[in-house]
Amino acid sequence: MKILLYSLILFLLSFCKGGLSESQKSEIVKIFQEHQKIQETLVANPKSLPEIKSLIESLRSGSKSLQGTKAESLIKSSLEIAEKTNLSSEESYFDSLSKIAENLGTVMKETEVASYHLFYCPMLNKYWVAKGETLVNPYAPDMRDCGEMVK
Questions:
Q1: Which tens digit of pLDDT belongs to each residue from 27-51?
Q2: Is residue 127 within 8 Å of 119, Cβ to Cβ?
Q3: How many CB atoms lie within 10 A of CB 77?
Q4: Which of 23, 36, 48, 139 is the most buried (most CB within 10 A)?
Q5: pLDDT single digits (tens) 49-83
Q6: Partner residues linked to 149 by β-bridges
Q7: pTM to 2 decimal places
Q8: Residue 97 and residue 38: Cα distance in Å, rounded?
Q9: What is the rounded distance in angstroms from the CA atom of residue 138 to the CA atom of residue 121?
Q10: 113-138 in b/e burial notation, b at 16+ Cβ within 10 A?
Q11: Are 126 and 98 in contact (CB under 8 A)?
């Protein structure tokens, strides 16, 4: 009887923690992938400010899919930031990407979606999310190794 009671308590605790379904985790991974594509484009071509339409669409889809979860408000906030991004101003563009990355970093902690990490560059005061642990600062071509992984 005790084992059954403990199992029930553990189940309820995991449910209350806001566990995500596989489809919800998949939506979050899609958002990270779109953010990663932008970072990779910035590294490959520092003079470009890549379109963010795909990121906006993945954020919009994610905000619908994640209704009722802890991640919902962060994804909605990221969507609002992305929709207001000034695509012609590098400073505004980078500020928006950094704020979105901060939100995604919090989403990572809350949802335990693995393989992506949050990085921070203190020189530029900017964040980015990248797959793996390799440090490649997308914001400054002359400082690609400036920054650190946020624990």
A1: 999 999 999 999 999 999 988 999 9
A2: yes
A3: 17
A4: 139
A5: 999 999 999 999 999 999 988 899 999 999 999 99
A6: 119
A7: 0.83
A8: 9
A9: 10
A10: beebbbbbbeeeebbbbbeeeebebb
A11: yes
